[in-house]
Amino acid sequence: MSIKSLLKSTVVTLTIVTGGSLFAQGTPINTAAFDALVAQGPVANAATIASSTWASKIKQAGTLRLGGTQTSNLFSLLNEKDGKMRGFDAGVAQLLTRYILGEGAKVQFTQVNSSTREQVLINDQVDMVLATYSITPARAEKISFAGPYYTSQAGVLVKANNSTIQSYNDLAGKKVATQAGSTGPAILAQFAPKGVVQEFQTHQEALDGLRQGRVDAYVTDHTLLLNALSLGTGDAKLAGAPFGAQDPYGIGLPKGSDGVAFINAFLKKIEADGTWAKLWTISIGQRTGSTAVPTPPALP
Q: Whole-prediction pTM value?
């Protein structure tokens, strides 16, 4: 069953905790399987590295400067016990690092959010941003994108006892949270123009707004909501099925970087050899009850 089908056919709930972080709990990833997959990833030869100025710069530096997140349960979560990040995005980043540098751990990490992702690239603070990063025309004016490596849609999260909001069609006049700098405001303008939108700086702050009753619903990328839902059972739920256009996730790079072609070739390689599917299964499928691996998005 695909993630989309799972969300359509299953009522999934999350534990909203009074205080503390939602990300302190949840279905753990199979760390041994994840680490083994990264360790077995492909390594580029010298000629492949030399063909890209972007990759050559990273090879010479000996480390890949990554802009990402460390609080996304399914996509990139920091394990405080061993100091390692794991999840689908973390896996793609580490596999790419191994492809260039021969070892997935050679990463210099910078925390980013939806409001800072373009700027860290423009300021040359990072080599790339990999953080459930939707490809949009406005962003593509400032930076370049490799990929897409994953696709998603939008979703609506409400408290479990909310019987009024069944889908995005019921958001008129309701207080609706979304993330500033994300695709959420545009999605709400299109699908729920009569909703009273409140923008929060982070995903966690939006979840807290819902938990505290300051908003009636939270609309964002449904994989982020799925990420929250994987954390446990309790008093929140998805209202209706995912909606809207397919949202492609890309890997942000400096504007005009030849890293786009290099990364797209890498993505095609890990899709063709089955690594992408194995990473999805370990990071998402096994942790959401979904056994049908999605088809990776088409690459240019």
A: 0.74
In 3D, which of 15, 52, 37, 33 has the Cα closest to residue 257?
52
What tens digit of pLDDT does each residue of 19-75 get? 333 333 457 899 999 999 999 999 999 999 999 999 999 999 999 999 999 988 899
Query: What distances in angstroms separate CA 267 from CA 2, 96, 186, 224, one per listed residue?
Result: 21, 9, 29, 22
Provide the residue count of the chain.
Answer: 300
Collapsing DSSP to helix, strand or coil, 271 comes out as helix
Q: Report pLDDT digits (tens) over 202-247.
A: 988 999 999 899 999 999 988 888 777 777 555 678 898 889 988 8
Task: Report the alpha-carbon distance of residue 243 to residue 38 in Å, rounded.
Answer: 33
Residue recorded with tokens 């049908």: 292
- What amino acid is encoded at 269 in this protein? K
Pair 89, 76: CB distance under 8 Å: yes
Task: Give the three-state DSSP class for 196.
Answer: strand
Q: What is the Cα–Cα distance from 159 to 15, expressed in whole angstroms?
A: 10
255 CB contacts (<8 Å, ≥6 apart)? 121, 122, 142, 143, 144
Tokens of 84: 């390692």
